[in-house]
Amino acid sequence: MTSAGKKSVLIVIRHSPYGSSLARASLDTALAAAAFEQPVQLLFMGDGVLQLLANQDSKAIGARNMGSLLSSLPLYDINSVYVDAEAGLRYGVDLSRAPVATKALAGSEIHQLMSSFDHLLGF
Amino acid sequence: MIYSLLVVSSPASGGCTQTASGFARSLLTRGHSIHRVFFLDAGTDTGAATAVFPQDEVDRLQPWVELAEQHAVELILCISSALKRGMLDQAEANRHDRVAATIHPAFTISGLGQLVDATANSDRLVTFGG
Amino acid sequence: MILHTLNASPGSSAFNDCLKVITPGDSLLLMGDGVYAAIADTDASRKLGSCGAHIHILQQDAVARGIDKLVTEANRVDLDGFVTLTEQYPRQQAWY
Known about the structure:
The structure holds three protein chains of three kinds. Chain A is α/β, with parallel strands linked by helices. Chain A is 28% helix and 17% strand. A five-stranded parallel β-sheet of chain A has the order 4-3-2-1-5. In chain B, 34% of the residues lie in helices and 20% in strands. In chain B, helix 1 packs parallel to helix 2 (62-71). The mean pLDDT of chain B is 97. Chain C has a five-stranded parallel β-sheet with strand order 4-3-2-1-5. The longest helix of chain C has 10 residues, at 79-88. The two termini of chain C are 20 Å apart. The mean pLDDT of chain C is 97. Chain A binds chain B through residues 1, 3-7, 9, 21-22, 25, 28-29, 32-33, 35-36, 38, 118-123, and chain B through 1-2, 6, 8, 40-42, 78, 80-81, 111-113, 115-117, 119-123, 125, 127, 129.
């Protein structure tokens, strides 16, 4: 088994953007991986899909705008962003207007996606 | 095998960090090596040198200190998570003009790059949250 | 093959998201409040039973919480058993 070099990482994001600091921590981890040229992809599940709402404006609550942070992902060459389609539907999130382009997955496809990575980072 | 651990839960709530330190000890007993333990978000509370646990509960700091001192396990607190929780080493306390360092010297403050490095250099990455 | 760890009660979204993904051939380790999902004759444990994965339960957390009526298919493990599971499964997903 190899113990060095590049490992593929999927960051699984299940927390809403402003209700906890975990959402910010998960995206910062993704950006750090990209900065160190480690392959990383993202999956939004459950409450995590609420990060994909368009028109976030967090100035009045003094928090970092998570929507604009998400829209910067392609600048870091993070282009594979997956979303739990059922959760998006449940919360009425219009994925066509999300801050970043996503690929919608059914439940069975999520397992297949997760199984293709060396490491899963669950947030 | 080479393991790294990611701890995102606080020792002040629930037993997860206690489970994580016990898991780390089991890893070493079974002959594995630990590349790094990275504490993120509420997990950074683990490094608090000033935490006082009730006498009828176990000390949740000491097992980590033993892992660091007896087995040279590297314990890293995420800098952005740590600073906003008032978790400072002496250098950060000086830099930000705060009265005191608050983390135990068994822990080191560093960036998320250390977590990225841990994923790249470990066969297993085990996350402790909740 | 995925080792799932669940550290949240069966009323949580973590429980539901875990069940959505888990597949026969996976293992699920219940820890912390996750152990409540293994109480025999409950909706939660019936859902676990039908997911087809191997169910493990962290003994110390079940004992602490007074859970003595465990579903029969749950395999009790200590921390060494937890380590063994991570040896067997190349990746872990933490639900919490």
